[in-house]
Design goal:
10 helices, globular
Length: about 220
């Protein structure tokens, strides 16, 4: 059995509810021992949950989760975080969630996670979770190709703010998402409330197969 630490990549376009979903997930006991990598604290808005800063870039959240500002190379930062875990310089963690910016192309991040040799023995990419705004999702997919990539690579699509649209609008968006990514389950959410096992426990693909899937996706999107 692999002892590598699972990584969940949380992506989604600007305003689609990543922060709300992440806050809700961190409230569950299953994610107590989680390290969260974000681009900057201001964007993720978790400051009110911080207890203390253990370094310039690593803080301890109120439920035992670590939160790191992603300011350097991703592979180097993951390697450094693991080393600090071994040295007991930070609390032990058994999962990593990487939250991207809303404008991020997930391709380079996925490439790093599945192709960087020094990470292979330490971590494994477990799942990609993409948030989609029920109100603005269709127009966002039409106007911003980054959002199409984010939806296409997802293992799980979380449709947020479903209480703000009528049934017809929601079904139209979900049909569009299924056309982009037929394999990913669709999870509806209000205020970030979801069953964490639905998102984090549904993907059971082994690391090698996952890497092959990501590699195929990267080749395909590069060709397009």
């Amino acid at each position: 059995m692999s002892h590598s630490i699972p990584i969940t990549l949380l992506t989604g376009y600007l305003g689609s509810g990543k922060t709300t979903l992440l806050r809700a997930l961190l409230a569950h006991p299953q994610l107590r021992n989680t390290a969260v990598l974000v681009n900057e604290f201001g964007e993720i808005a978790l400051d009110h949950q911080l207890l203390y800063a253990s370094s310039e870039t690593v803080v301890l959240l109120d439920r035992g989760c670590l939160c790191c500002a992603l300011r350097s190379d991703l592979a180097e930062q993951l390697d450094d975080l693991y080393t600090r875990r071994i040295r007991k310089e930070v609390p032990a963690f058994d999962r990593v969630v990487i939250e991207t910016t809303g404008l991020a192309d997930p391709g380079p991040i996925l490439q790093t996670l599945v192709a960087e040799p020094m990470l292979a023995a330490l971590y494994r990419l477990e799942s990609v979770v993409t948030t989609v705004d029920a109100e603005l999702g269709l127009s966002t997919l039409d106007a911003h190709f980054e959002s199409v990539k984010q939806a296409a690579v997802a293992d799980c699509l979380v449709v947020t703010k479903v209480d703000r649209v009528d049934a017809a609008e929601l079904l139209e968006l979900e049909a569009r998402l299924r056309a982009l990514n037929p394999a990913a389950p669709l999870v509806r959410s209000v205020n970030g409330e979801v069953d964490p096992d639905t998102i984090l426990g549904a993907v059971t693909v082994c690391a090698e197969v996952k890497a092959q899937q990501v590699s195929r996706w990267l080749r395909s999107t590069s060709y397009q």
